[in-house]
Amino acid sequence: MPLDRNDAWLSWQPSQSEPWDRRRAGHLVRRAFFGTTMGDLDRLVDQGLEATLDELFAGAGRESFDDEMRPMERVLSSTQDPRSLASWWLLRMSRTPCQFLEKMTLFWHGHFATTASKVIDPRAMLAQNRLLREHALGSFVPMVEGISKDVAMLVYLDSTDNRKTRPNENYARELMELFCLGPGNYTEADIKELARCFTGWEVRRGKFRFNANQHDRGSKTFLGKTGNFGGDEAVRIVLDHPASSRFLARKLINWLVVDDLPDDEFCEPVARTLRETDFSIGAAIRQILASRWFWCDEQIGSKVRGPVEMAIGLVRGLGVDMNMNQFGDRMEQLGQLPMFPPNVKGWEGGRQWINASTFIGRVNLVAAIVAAGNAGNGFGALARGNDSDAREWVSELVEWLVPVALPQASFDQIVEIAKNARGGLEERVGEVICAIGATPEFQLN
Amino acid sequence: MTRVALDYLDFPLGACMRTFHFVLCEHRTCPAPSRVARRLTAIVATLALVFATDRVEALQTDTSSQPAADNEALAGAALFPRDTTLFVHVAGPGKLVERVLEHPLREKIEELEQVRAVLRGPQWVQAKLALAYLEARVGEKWIPALTSMTGGGIHAGFDLKTGSVAIAAHADDEGLLSKTAGEVLGFARGEAETNGKPFKIVSVHNGKIADMEKMSIGRFGKWLLVSNKPDYLRALAERLDRATSNAAHDEDSLAGNVNFRAALGRRTADSDAWVFADLQAIRGAGLAPELFAGSTDEPAAELIFGGVFEALRDAPFAAASLAVATDRIAARLEVPFDAADSPAVREYLLGTGGRGRAPRAMHIPGLIAQVETYRDLGGWWSNKEALFPENVVAGLAQGDSQLSTVFGGVDFGNEVLGALQPGMRLLVKQQEFAKGQSPDIQLPAFALVTRLQNPADARRFRISFQSLVGLLNLSDDGMERPQIEIITSREEGIELTAGEYWAENDTRDGLFIYNFSPALAFQDDYMILSSSRDFAREIALATKTPGNESADSESNTHIHVEADTLRRAIEVNRQALVAQTMIDNGLSRENAESRVDMALEILKYTRDAMIDYRVEPQTMSLEFQLRFAKPSPN
Fold first, then answer.
1. The model scores a pTM over 0.80
2. A393 vs B: CB within 8 A
3. Which among A195, B209, B344, B408 could bridge A172 via Cys, Cβ 3.0 to 4.6 Å?
4. Residue of A74, A204, A424 lying closest to B440 (CB–CB)
5. Where are the beta strands (DSSP E) in B135-184?
6. Is B509 in the A-facing interface, judged by CB distances under 8 Å?
């Protein structure tokens, strides 16, 4: 039965008709994580929904993982090779114990899109990445304040020089249009006045600096407020605009629940949470993930998987070690190379991820991941001791890897592959994963 | 042709292999019995496995057997056609295997995570057991068996026109060869029958031939022949027959080829393996045309490899040899070359009549690498119209104009490069960094050492150097870039102009740019351009010290890399290597560290490496040598 619009944001509880099982745990994994092993999926089922949501936000193991990655970041800072940043981040995504945090960092990277191809300096890109991760589940307010002074962002938007005689409007425009309010909630005059607030904000010797001599100390009027505002006050004024919470709520819902967004009114409960918690991202996300709307049947498999979440999910699920430079090349072919978003709007996502070329690329990527796994420990254990019953272990693999049921004909074909493919069980499991990866259903989230 | 029964085979090896497979592998995780090719691959792999598992006594290279090795090669060449494109002779493969197995490096390589994984794998164990079975069947351990079955060497030939390839092994022990061949063919027959593939044994008057789907194997007395083409194998058998009945080598065989004999005459005394390549045939087939064109569009490639291009354009053949001993591996590649007839346009590289010699090596403690080469940069530049096509010349002319500006308007080719004497050295050494200016990735210091035709030209170079450093200071792009102060000093007859970084309070440590403190030093007619002030000064001082150079060089170019200093330079950058390994292999830090540390450990077993490029009156040669060292306890 379709969910009543008025009940959408009520808290969901597992029931006999909607149990907390592999299917629903897999739904949460695909939306909030990159991917888990089959065993870990069962562990989530066993521990229940509440404990799983708690685990999501707890971020256990983050400190030691950051310690492990820190020396690498220092080395990357010393190179002048921005491309290696993408490999580094893909490695990080594939190994972090805090998948939810990392995936939200990827979301914010798309939101505050900045490309290393223009910024070049790895230190600036890494600093921005750290900023996004630091606030990914915290408050949106310090994140916007930080991004407004972020060297990579200012370099990317040609805002390293912002003089009072010639205010740079780039950042002011994007702050309202893309980061906080959305189109239609400000005027061209607002942009010009907001730009004056940021005069004197500049980059010198790779660092943000406030140049008091270049700051316009005159009165400014924008978004209905008047005063001698500086940049920090201007950011707060933008965030206090009624459109900001709705804008952010829609972005989060779009990322976590559905590609085709409903109207503002529908998203208002999440926007209200944001306003009431001074833009607590974690609170809004928890509300979304606990809602009946998130868990209703029609949402499971309703989104298109992004290339990174698809590929990292499979790498993590299969426990495969990959050459991340080559992996990055494939991500680029599929249209989502981290650290290199296509433009200031970030990745469009949704159905735009899939076309004839990228679909073939996805299938080839699955084959490459399986090949890397075959060269390592193999996949025999994934058949869970049921070599004699191919239908059974294929069914388990499908349930683990695909959010919706496969058409019977596709399933039967895959079972045939499981029975007749050359080689031993490990090779046949690999062949089956490749076949599953080539189905349209596997591309869903 | 008649099919004959393999009556000497009373138990099919293929069945045995399947038995091993069943016993060894867990029911659900082991691949099913595979095809002939996979089985044969497993046997070949097994040979390599036993390299790694059987202990044998060390044997030094036996150089006294060299004339026999030449005769051995001739005996093998007598089987192959006169126009064979590529011929390989391995003398004493059994002894070669023993030497490799005994090397202390083997243990370290076995400890590598990837090698351990292979050695633990079920297919590896299965292959080893299959070999053990084969040993039991023939009644001989595999290394002595290999030694006996290849006592007369292994010979391989490749014919480019037909794509035919053949391997010929000459045994000391005919009985053992017969028994082993029977076992292997029995296995192949079983697999072929199981998989419905063709398998036929025919008798010819001097032996037996087994024809399979993609391979033919023949045994003729002490000879075992294997080929991918049945006709090719039969032609080899016929030549063997003629060679057996006639004392003289067949003039239609490779042994009667004048070029082959000329090449064999140049074979080095201690080589374990030797290769002959018919370059005329390779050129005629249009393979790798860039290599034989005699020229290149890349100015840097011409500067480095121009002499090789010159020789390969017309050389009738090339010969290569490989020598493996417990303390070194040496390889030599050579082609015939008439140095007296070398063209004037390449005198910049070869010298007049090919007599250009590299400068003497310098004795400076702690060097990682040193390159000495005879190159006349002024001659290279002034001959650009003759060396390169028009578009490249146009690009160089544009560069000439821009560089002339940097050098105060003088002609770059004639007055800048032309001011240098032929011959230069490139030196590499680990460097120390000032406190607060230590880069996260620490590169060694580099220095180019040349000599001026006229020491009075030093001033021009110094001023241009100052201009270039000044340009670096002006290229502020808003990023963190400390300014460079140029300081000139004169002491002990050395004039040193060097850049020093001005690290302001807010400049962080670890910047990559700290690897470079550009310096230019002059001492007498020496000019030293270095990435490090201290290194430039050290070299300048060394040029003043009598006896601080080696004897006159006989090489055109000589490269020497010292493993110990190289390892220490790498260890300094361990974190960077670990990071790169993590990214390249998707590994955790712990696993990446383990892999890097093992590679560094293996480097401890290496003493040095050398490359020597020589131009002699009738030969151009390239020698490579890797010497091993016993590692110190720490």
1. no
2. no
3. A195
4. A74
5. 154-159, 164-170
6. no
